[in-house]
Amino acid sequence: MPPLRTALRRLSRALAILVVSWLALSWLAVLVLRFVPPWTSAVMMERRMGAWLHGERDFRLRQHWVPWTQVSPYVPLAMVAGEDQKFPFHHGFDLDSIQDALDDADEGKRLRGASTISQQTAKNLFLWNGRSFVRKGLEAYFTVLIELSWPKRRILEVYMNIAELGDGIYGVGAASEAYFHVPPSRLGPAQAARLAAVLPSPRRLHADRPSAYVQRRTQWIERQMQQLGGPGYLDGTHPPRPRRGH
Q1: pLDDT tens profile 61-75
Q2: Whole-angstrom Cα distance, residue 66 to residue 211?
Q3: What is the pLDDT at residue 246?
């Protein structure tokens, strides 16, 4: 066999082993995190590294894990009401929202996000911020793994523990103590809605110093929480109702 063909065959075999190994390890990581609380996330590490590179000496990252049973049921409901009302019913991707976003882009409107909570969990946990096709492809891959491996409650539990809710503040445990000085189990509907209201831009919007926009969005999320029927909506026993503008 010619040397070049032998070298190419060995290279192909090495690449195949590398790809299969990466797929196996990534799925193993997802399976482990179904049961083990993640001690950090890729986005948290990215933020910490960014602070170090930019010389932010006063930066302090705050986050600690809080299990589902120790969080007010209004918190996950508020996040679903504000971010992804079809979460209990879809399989990781909201195809209607994706199509609406593409239609808006075709009409020249501002590009808006259509990421579900499952996609945001995949991105926050394993990937980095940005809009590249590579990152979006990996986000879709990890979203599929998460939806296949975790129940919906686990996805929400991880999401509300790693979501950025302020500059250096990640997760409902740190946010509830920083902004409201209470444990997350004591958060009421209005407080939960205010946390969810800052999720689109947590470094610009502030739960403890709400702007007029945050106040309006908080009120809209509270109305949505009521219209969805309360925390029981997360069980997925009732179909989603249409969202009204905010």
Answers
A1: 999 999 999 999 999
A2: 28
A3: 55
Q: What is the largest CA-CA distance in the chain?
A: 73
Q: What are phi and psi of 41, to 5 degrees?
A: -145, 165
Query: What percent of the chain is helix, strand and coil (3-state, nearest 5)?
Result: 60, 0, 35
Q: How far apart are CA 243 and CA 142, in angstroms?
A: 27
Sign of CA pseudo-dihedral 11, 15, 16, 18: positive
In terms of Cα–Cα distance, which of 189, 142, 184, 185 is closest to 165? 184
**What's the distance, CA 237 to chain centroid?**
23
- Specify the pLDDT at position 237: 63
Q: Which residue has the tokens 């103590």?
A: 177
Token reading at 160: 């509300």
| Residues of the chain below pLDDT 50 | 105, 111-112, 242
One-letter amino acid of 227: Q
Residue 120 CB: number of other CB atoms within 10 A? 22
